[in-house]
Amino acid sequence: LPFPQKLWVMAESNQFQSIWWSEGGKCVAIAEELFKAEVLGKGRPLQIFAMQNIQSFLRQLTRYGFTKIQRDFQRSASLPEFLAEEAAVSAHSQILYYYNSSFKREHPYLLEKCKRRASLKRRAPDALEMDERHPCRCPDG
């Protein structure tokens, strides 16, 4: 499965304690330390992602259009979300919240719109071509 689909399945699953839906299914919450051990840790029987580094995982989120959001200290209204947040807080881990308009609990069909963005390295040659087609028109040259 592509990255967003894997993430969606994990958030939906009761198998993982480190990732869950937050904000009524509009955001994904990740308990960073627990996620490192539970999902990215070495020696996992089932390797979900090809990475073992949290920074690589967070870069993937960004490449797929996820935005880190700051969460206010108001607790979730739903019991499962509240319990997941409490468990993460009690484990002394930082909870990261990520939002993507095409990544919502009740709307799995939106995952088709969750595409990987082109990297900056791929854009650089295009920018150079644009410069060649539109030379500088300043007096100096």
UniProtKB/TrEMBL annotation:
- Keywords of the record: DNA-binding, Nucleus, Stress response, Transcription, Transcription regulation
Give the main localization category: nucleus
Q: Which domain of life is it from?
A: Eukaryota
The record's Gene Ontology cellular component field reads: nucleus
Q: In which compartments does the protein localize?
A: Nucleus
Occurrences of domain HSF-type DNA-binding (ranges): 2-117
Q: Does the keyword Cell membrane apply?
A: no
- GO MF annotations, alphabetized: DNA-binding transcription factor activity; sequence-specific DNA binding
Q: According to its UniProt record, which protein family does this protein belong to?
A: Belongs to the HSF family.
Q: What is this protein called?
A: Heat shock transcription factor, Y-linked
